[in-house]
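Project outcomes to date are best conveyed with an example. Our students and postdoctoral researchers have been running inverse folding experiments weekly, and each run begins with a structure described purely in C-alpha cells. The record below, which covers 111 residues, was selected by the lab manager from last quarter's runs and is presented without edits.
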C-alpha cells in the first residue's frame, strides 16, 4: 500500500437532536464505508437563534473520521439522512495523524 499523507484524513463535525438519532445515522455511514469511525458526545447544550427565537436545546455532537476524497459523498449522505433542516456539517482537515491510524481509516473506507 502506498504511503498516505495526513492531509488525506478529515474529521466531519455535526450535531444531532439526541444520541439515538446520532447512533442510527452514524452506524449507517460506517456500514456504507463512508466513515471509518464516529465519536458521539451526548449531553452537549446548543444555544442559537432560529427563525427569530433564541433556542437552547440538548444535542449530541459527533466527529466522523474519513478520507478527504469521501468528504463530499459522506456530507451528502449525512445531509440526506439528517433530521435538521440546516444541519451543521463542518469538514476539518488534518495537518497531522499517526500513520497507523491513517492506514486503518483508509482500509475501513475502501469500497
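After processing, the design step wrote out the following sequence:
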Amino acid at each position: 500500500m502506498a504511503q498516505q499523507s495526513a492531509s488525506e484524513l478529515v474529521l466531519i463535525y455535526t450535531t444531532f437532536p439526541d444520541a439515538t438519532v446520532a447512533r442510527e445515522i452514524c452506524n449507517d455511514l460506517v456500514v456504507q464505508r463512508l466513515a471509518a469511525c464516529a465519536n458521539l458526545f451526548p449531553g452537549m447544550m446548543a444555544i442559537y437563534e432560529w427563525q427569530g427565537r433564541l433556542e437552547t436545546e440538548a444535542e449530541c455532537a459527533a466527529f466522523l473520521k474519513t478520507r478527504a476524497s469521501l468528504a463530499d459523498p459522506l456530507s451528502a449522505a449525512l445531509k440526506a439522512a439528517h433530521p435538521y433542516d440546516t444541519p451543521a456539517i463542518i469538514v476539518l482537515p488534518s495537518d497531522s495523524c499517526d500513520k497507523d491510524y491513517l492506514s486503518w481509516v483508509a482500509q475501513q473506507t475502501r469500497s
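The beta strands are 9-16, 37-50, 53-67, 90-93. The longest strand covers residues 53-67. The training component of this project remains on track.
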